[in-house]
Design goal:
By secondary structure, the protein is an alpha/beta fold. It folds into two domains: 119 residues, Rossmann fold (3-Layer(aba) Sandwich), CATH 3.40.50.720; 252 residues, 2-Layer Sandwich (Dihydrodipicolinate Reductase, domain 2). 31% of the residues lie in helices and 23% in strands. The chain has ten helices and 17 strands. The strands form three sheets. Strands 16-15-12-11-7-10-9-8-17 form a nine-stranded mixed β-sheet. It has a six-stranded parallel β-sheet with strand order 3-2-1-4-5-6, sandwiched between helices. It has a two-stranded antiparallel sheet with strand order 13-14. It is globular, with a radius of gyration of 20 Å. The structure holds nicotinamide-adenine-dinucleotide. The site of nicotinamide-adenine-dinucleotide has 24 residues, from loops.
């Protein structure tokens, strides 16, 4: 008997990847779906064989035979929808970024705690197999103590047909300062949570303490559009480099962007990370990653150690449903995170990426944006609960 009965709200770009996760878990089933767009909801229902279709979230919470909600709506709806679900006694899987301010995120966490339900924030970068393997190698002491993280963000592969080619009215939330949460930096707000989550995950959960952003206004892309994989990003205002210190002052990190958006070339594609340790180094691909070569072969993770042969790893786990990447990001990362929520519900265990973790990643992102606005390093603890990037 399946024990986790799910209603998915928000049937856009990411929803089908979540559905794959529930469909492949023996104890979960998607029994209801909801979207404001009736045609989209009906199409999704017929594509995936879901019977209960709603156009109102409140109605789905009231009337659907569910005990779990999957929130895949635009960012500005995440905290209120999480709160409503928790108050209706439902477990929650919620997409990132979890909130737009620390206060609204913590309020939602409070509702989750008071109602004794589970909440997993869908921070895919800590559920992707290549990163999980990197963390396992670090925990096993393979590179000694990790001391430095270097992340890069190159162009994505060009798909023949972009999944998000057009900019329909319904997707304008991505470039709207308030709805995206990012003010002048909507793309950074949407993505930096991934980067900070990875930076802490691969540093053994060390917490980031202070963040500095380098800004740029260079606009060399001839068509004036955004990044190759995401035409919603804006080239006019950008943060191409972010650096940070951890609470442990021996450790530090940097994220840098080198992609079509600002006319910069990088032979590596997508997201990749290098973790430098006392005795070795790990290079690992993330979202959309490609061109991590070793002895002429494409690899997904390289482990270099002083005085030892380099070891290379691949994770061939099926196709990438959304981007044209080499590590099958969408297929496995989303499946892993959704399975984790189902397992937490069934085993009454604590999520390994909680609402509070999601709030912390947003706090770091707000510190990066505030640093860009004020031109100085920002202590993440100085982000007031009601600070937003759009006001
Ligand atoms: N983890 C990842 O790797 C990843 C990838 C893509 C998107 N995301 C996140 O997922 C979220 C959704 O992104 P997307 O690209 O799928 O968005 P989208 O714009 O493609 O789809 C959002 C859907 O929500 C629906 N919607 C809006 N308001 C609603 C409401 N009140 N009730 C019901 N439905 C409503 C819209 O009609 C639309 O169908 C975002 O927060 C985004 O950051 C995460």
């Amino acid at each position: 008997m399946k024990s986790v009965h799910v209603g998915i709200v928000g049937l856009g770009l990411v929803a089908a990847s979540h559905l794959k996760g529930y469909a492949s878990h023996p104890h979960a089933e998607v029994v209801a779906i909801c979207d404001l767009d009736k045609a989209r909801a009906n199409q999704f229902a017929s594509d995936h064989g879901v019977e209960a279709v709603f156009n109102s979230y409140e109605e789905m919470l009231r009337n659907a035979p569910i005990n779990t909600v999957d929130i895949a709506t635009p960012t500005f709806l995440h905290p209120s929808m999480t709160r409503q679900a928790a108050e209706a006694g439902m477990h929650v899987h919620c997409e990132k970024p979890f909130c737009r301010s620390v206060a609204e995120g913590l309020e939602a966490c409070d509702a989750v705690r008071r109602n004794g339900v589970k909440l997993v924030v869908g921070e895919t970068y800590v559920f992707i197999t290549s990163h999980i393997k990197a963390r396992e190698l670090i925990d096993a002491g393979e590179i000694g103590r990790p001391l430095q993280i270097r992340q890069r963000h190159g162009a994505w592969f060009e798909r023949e047909r972009h999944v998000v080619e057009e900019i329909p009215e319904a997707r304008n939330w991505r470039v709207d300062g308030e709805k995206s949460g990012g003010g002048d930096y909507p793309w950074i707000f949407d993505h930096a949570v991934h980067f900070f989550a990875t930076a802490e995950y691969l540093m053994g959960d060390a917490r980031i303490a202070e963040i500095s952003a380098v800004t740029a206004t260079c606009k060399t892309d001839s068509n004036g559009r955004g990044a190759a994989h995401d035409p919603y990003s804006i080239p006019d205002v950008d943060i191409p480099i972010i650096t940070w210190k951890y609470e442990d002052t021996d450790c530090q990190g940097v994220w840098m962007r080198a992609e079509r958006l600002n006319g910069k070339y990088d032979y590596m594609h997508g997201f990749s990370t290098t973790v430098i340790g006392e005795r070795g180094m790990i290079e690992v691909l993330g979202e959309g990653g490609h061109n991590l070569l070793w002895n002429g072969e494409q690899q997904h993770l390289l482990l270099h150690r002083e005085g030892e042969e380099t070891r290379a790893f691949r994770f061939d786990e099926g196709g990438d449903d959304v981007w044209q990447s080499d590590i099958r990001y969408y297929s496995r990362g989303h499946i892993n995170q959704v399975h984790h929520l189902v397992d937490c519900v069934r085993n009454d265990s604590s999520p390994r990426y909680s609402g509070e973790d999601g709030v912390h990643a947003v706090r770091c992102t707000l510190a990066a944006i505030r640093s860009a606005r004020e031109g100085r390093p920002i202590d993440v603890h100085d982000i007031a609960p009601d600070y937003t990037a759009y006001s």
